[in-house]
Amino acid sequence: MKENRQISALLVDDHDLVLQGLKRILEYAVPEIKMICKVSSGKEALSLIDIQPFELFLLDVELPDMSGIDLIASIRKKQPKARIMVNTMHEEIWFVRSLLQCNLDAILFKSIDSRQVVDAVHAVLQGKKYFCPYVERVRLQLKSQEKNRKNELTLRELDVLKLLSEGKSTQEIAQELCVSANTVDTHRRHLMEKLDARNVVDLVVIAISRGIIPIRS
After folding, report:
1. In this structure, are residues 47 and 55 in contact, taking their beta carbons and an 8 Å threshold?
2. CB of 62 closer than 8 Å to CB of 88
3. How far is CA 142 from CA 67, 94, 106, 109, in A?
4. pLDDT (tens digit, 9 = 90+) per residue, 26-46?
5. Which of 208, 182, 180, 204 is nearest to 192 (CA)?
6. Contact yes or no for 135/107 (Cβ under 8 A)
7. Whole-structure pTM over 0.85, yes or no?
8. CA 60 to each of CA 22, 41, 85, 108, 175: distance values in angstroms, whole numbers, following the listed order
9. Would you say 118 and 30 are in contact if contact means Cβ atoms under 8 Å apart?
């Protein structure tokens, strides 16, 4: 966010005590936010953002009238440059994973103290992401799982790898698998990328060292 810009924020929560508390925290500790609005439902939030742009949203996802996930999607559609922070009481891993899929700028738990809320808001207004250590661990776990999925070999790639290890040419592999030579070349390129190999010999050596294919006697 640019300095001296009139930053506006919208707080969304169906508990008035939470809304009042967050509003006071922001007014006291984040003076660069010049306007703070608060609503207690998703429909109120949608009606308001149709007439008023907000740079920052701090919302609960458990709302009485609609899914917070749907609200986040609507905000992204209506105000794509806005920063969105979620403040939730749900710390279950499956719930955190679903939130991480929403490309949020921060995920906070209602169990944290006010200082952490302020730190999170400052970070987000500076264009950074803010996740507590637990959420960050879940995020890194998801990232690792996604990388592993991308690196998994398909059954057809395994077929091509096995035949390459037997010293067969592209044409021979294409004939045996009843596919085109271009298809075999594509599979070989994918294998090289996934196993980070420089050439076919390197590819076979890496595959054997990882136990993907057996050592030929």
Report:
1. no
2. yes
3. 23, 11, 16, 19
4. 999 999 999 999 999 999 999
5. 204
6. yes
7. no
8. 12, 10, 9, 10, 58
9. yes
Residue with the two structure tokens 């010049």 = 34
Distances (CA, A) of 77 to 56, 74, 80, 81, 83: 15, 5, 6, 9, 13
Q: How far is CA 183 from CA 105, 110, 136, 156, 175, in A?
A: 41, 53, 40, 10, 11
Which regions of the chain are under pLDDT 70? 1-5, 145-150, 216-217
| Identity of residue 19 | L
CA end-to-end distance (rounded Å), the chain: 64
CA distance 66 to 69: 9
Using CA atoms, how far apart are residues 108 and 7, in angstroms rounded to an integer? 21
All domains of the chain in start order, with CATH? 7-146 (3.40.50.2300), 153-209 (1.10.10.10)
As a whole number of angstroms, the distance between CA 164 and CA 170 comes to 8
pLDDT of residue 5: 62
DSSP 84-99: EEEEES---HHHHHHH
Helix ranges (H only) for the chain are 16-29, 42-49, 68-78, 93-100, 114-125, 133-151, 155-165, 170-177, 181-194, 200-209
What's residue 149's pLDDT? 61
